[in-house]
Amino acid sequence: MGESTARVFPNLQYEQQPQYTAGIIKKIRLENFMCHENFEMEFGENVNFVLGQNGSGKSAILAALCIAFGSRAKGTDRAKHLKDFIKTGCSNAVIHVEIQNEGEDAFKPEIYGDVIIVERRISESTCSIILKDHQGKRVVHRMADLREMVEHFNIDVDNPCVIMNQDKSREFLHSGNIKDKFKATLLQQVNDLLETISKEIGVAHGIVNDLEGSIKPIEKELNELQAKIKAMEHIEQMSAEVKKLKNKLAWSWVYDVDKKLEAKSAMIDKLKNRIPACQEKINQQLLKIETLKEGISKRKDEIAIMTEKYTQLKQIIADQSQLWPLAEKEVLVLEQDCNSKTSQIQKMLQRLKKLEQDVQDLHELDVKNTQAENYDLEEKLEGLQLEVRAAELEWERLNEEETMLANNINKQKEEIQTITDKIRDHENNCKQISKKIYDFQQRQCNKISAFGGDRVMELMRLIDRDHRKFGVPPIGPIGVHLNLLDAEKWADTVEHAVGGMLNSFIVNDHKDFLLLKKLAKEAKYYKLRIIIYNFEIERLKIPQHLLPQTKHPSTLSLLQSENHTVMNVLVDIGNVERQVLVKDYETGKVVAFEQKPRNVKEVYSADGRKMFSRGNVETTIPLQSNGPGRLCSSFEDYIKDLRSKASDEQNAVNEGKSSKQQAEIKLRELESDPTRVKRRRDCEKAGRTLYSKKLALEEAMNQRAGENSSIPLSSVEELRVEITELEKKLEEEKVLLEALRQRKDEASGKAKDLKVKFDKLRESAEKKFAAMEKAGTECSEIENELKLAEKGKAHYESLMANTVLPAIKTAEEEYHELTKMREENAEKASKICPENEANGCGSLEGSDMKTPEQISAELGELTQKVERECQRHSEPIADLRILYEKKERKIKKKQQMYKALRQKMDACQKALGIRGVKFKKNANYLKQQLSWKFNDHLRKKGISGLIKVNYEEKTLSIEVQMPQDASNRAVRDTRGLSGGERSFSTLCFALALHEMTESPFRAMDEFDVFMDAVSRKISLDTLVDFAVSQGSQWLFITPNDTSMVKPGPKVRKLQMPPPRS
Fold it and tell me: In the chain, which end has fewer C-beta atoms inside a 10 angstrom radius, N or C?
């Protein structure tokens, strides 16, 4: 047959739009294949009708597609071998198929591009497969690669729903076997495949079980070898242990002596530590004795002072006891004067009334008085007036002297009070200085007391008591751990700089902080400063560029400590590296405010000033000095100065007491001066004389008035003048009366004050007497304590001499003997093995160290055990290990392989189960869908039908109900139908199966055989509608007329050339 070319009916109405469906056939080219010599045909993307006469090679196209996609020759039902497809007279054949590779389902588009070319070459002896890209370049050539592509596109050429050739079409038309039709569903193939896989998995499990059982004897031998090797290794270990025990035994005698030496040394140290303890007790008792003696002396001095004060107070009470009655007497006298003055005023009022009456009677009486009598009376009155004036002057003089004397007494009392206050101030100063001397002496004896006094001593005792409760023992006070360079010069200045931190304690964590705070509260040390700092931090190293750039020393440069944590705290918290010390204020001003060197925070001067600047603000703070700094190396000079000051204060106290005694003597002289009593009596006498003179004058004046009243006056004017004078005098007398009353009230208040003062003095005297008795009792108690302290001192001195020192001597002698024994044992042990080898054999020191006797017993027992084991096992361990390793490698390799096989089979079994479930589910769904689709297609010709699928019996039966059958019986065997009806029902069955499969293209050959024109038209319309609705590529091959099918955008007709003779 010569070269042929297909005639194509193009779409003349409108242009076809590309769909880019991956996997459809674009073109096929055949060379020397069956009846074709050189044939080429291009297909549309949708419906393609291949038309031609019988013998034109239409069916060869489907056979070529099957072979191109990997089908065997027998699968095409056209030949037994591929070489049978070669055209007669030719040596080889070529099948060239181009597959579209565009869209989402494209197969490796980065390699093949938009077209995949499958080329299969067939020769007499061989057959090859080549996959090419869109440029025709060779990519792969293996059958596995072709299968991968075919599976990707879901092209199953053996499925009649994908490619139905003539033979498969006849099989459907003429077969009455319901089991053959069941095979068309492919469910039989899937079910058979699943059952085959299940059987193969079961066989594989049996094989693996057999293989695993075959290695169990080897495993048993391996375990026996391992037990022998372990036994031999145990013997080797015991032999090595025997050797180690021998070395340990040799040196254990040495270490046993070392242990005794250590215990003896600890005992000696403990005994020697008792010496300072005893000495400390003795010193404490001595200090207590000295303190008690000072207390006794102090109490006696206080008792003497209180006795002296009590004596003075008794004298004052005696004096007050005289002043109070005198004041009461003065009140009585003034009260009498007031009464007398009141009586006198009453008389004057009566006289005034009488004169007024005389004035009225003046006109009626005419009394004549001689001039001589009037002259004598006037002369008498003048004499009395002069005497009254003289008495008044004398009384005033005596009062002024008495007032002056009282003022002198008050001044003397104020002077005594001032001297008493000065004495008390000097005594307080002396006490404070004595306390300072005691504190500095305590600092010399015990440095810790300088940083908190008795409270810190009590706290240290509590810390020592509960030291096991701390995670890390606290450090403090900080000042105890510091030493100061050039202490005499800088002690006060450094005290100002870091004095607030010297009393502080340092702890490692918050737990220790809470415990120390609790102990401080117990010691009544409420304001203790506690700093939390990590003790594990190494000593801080400050770079030179971070230190103050000045020639003056810093606080850090003068402080020294062996404890790096103390220095770290001073740097991190106290900033001591940034504190500069200078000699005086002027130098400090230059450094702080003018030079302002880097890294300087504060400047302290030796004369007690602190200077710093913050921005533009310059600040200077004067600091108060409380004596030498606590870091001072010696306090002797300061104690000497304090003792000198105490002596000066005591001298001032003594001088004050002497001055006070003299002032009190002078006061007593003033108060007991006899002239004062005489003066007081003269004053009282002068007062009485003045009073009597005034009475005499008043009587004389009254007498004159009486005489004048009996004599008629020549003039009324004289009487009126007398009345005026009397009224004036009456007013003066009233003023005098008021003054007397005021003086009486003052005297009464003074008397009351003297009474209250007297009561207070008496109460104070009683308290002082009680205080004297209490001081005497305390003095007796101190004397008793002194006796006890002296007994305690004698006890500790006896303990030192009779117990501690002899025990130390005995222990030192025993230590010397143990030292000689140790040297001998070490010499013997060195001959056996070096000491480092013995230490390498295990711990010979510590709490788990065994005695030589225990090691010797253990060595004997272990030696016997080694001998017994050596008799039981005589094989060399090296040979056993080689044999064990050889078998172990062999068995491990097999175990790993069998384990991998077991895992794969388990995975397959699991997947098989999942697929079995899915198969059953899909099979039920497909059974229903197949019947629905089949009946739907039959209705187009007015026929109804039913498909019954039995998965258990693996059968598929078709029932067709013809409309013209009056009996209304269903036809169960398609062979009972006419040829056209059978062809149409078979077509409907095939289309129903087509909807249940997915493939990029489908092909049917001679589908319309035996059909009449009407059935063919219905069939063609059904096929075209079905193909268009499915959307995939369809190839319909028929020799019959298809003129009733109009070509369009999705329908293409391809005409085969007629066959050549």
Answer: C
